[in-house]
Amino acid sequence: MPLWRVALWVIGIAAIDIALLIFVTPKIDAAFPATILGTYPRPSGSLYWIDTVLGLALVAYSEEVIFRRCARHVIESRVGDGYLLVVASSLLFGAYHWWTGLGSIVEATIMGVLLMLFLRRAGSLWPVVLAHYLADVLSFA
């Protein structure tokens, strides 16, 4: 995949994530407030920058390894390499965000679909990690 297409995918995924966080997640959370069991911590001072730069990079990398590589390997042996794999791994990724509410579960599931499709298209994990990282930085910064 050419670098310019990787850049378009990364920017597009980050933009869709922001749109979901602005327009979809708050409406679902408002309709189902009892599903929100916690929120992400908000560090301050120098810890904010360490968390934003390093912490989110570790989160993006670890979640992509777990859900796009490991879970893919396990699920693929049961459902094949088709779109059912994309849906199953994305639902697992959404369920991983259960404690932040139904809105976050929906947002994470949609992002999981996009990230898995991107992995299938790019054939490499590093662009997917980059897209996840950029989406997280824009969401939490």
Task: Explain how this protein is built.
With 141 residues, this protein is mainly alpha-helical. The chain has one domain (3-140). Helix content is 81%, strand content 0%. The radius of gyration is 15 Å and the shape is globular. The model has no long low-confidence stretch (mean pLDDT 96).
List keywords for this structure.
globular; single chain; mainly alpha; 81% helix
Summarize the structure.
The chain has 141 residues and is mainly α. The chain contains five helices and no strands. The two termini are 29 Å apart.
List the helices and strands and how they pair.
Layout (H helix, E strand, L loop, with lengths): L2 H29 L14 H34 L3 H14 L5 H21 L2 H16 L1
Helix pairs in contact: 1-4, 1-5, 2-3, 2-5, 3-4, 4-5
Largest sheet: none
Please count the helical segments. 5
Helix share bin: over 70%
Using DSSP, what is the number of strands?
A: 0
Query: Into how many domains do the coordinates divide?
Result: 1
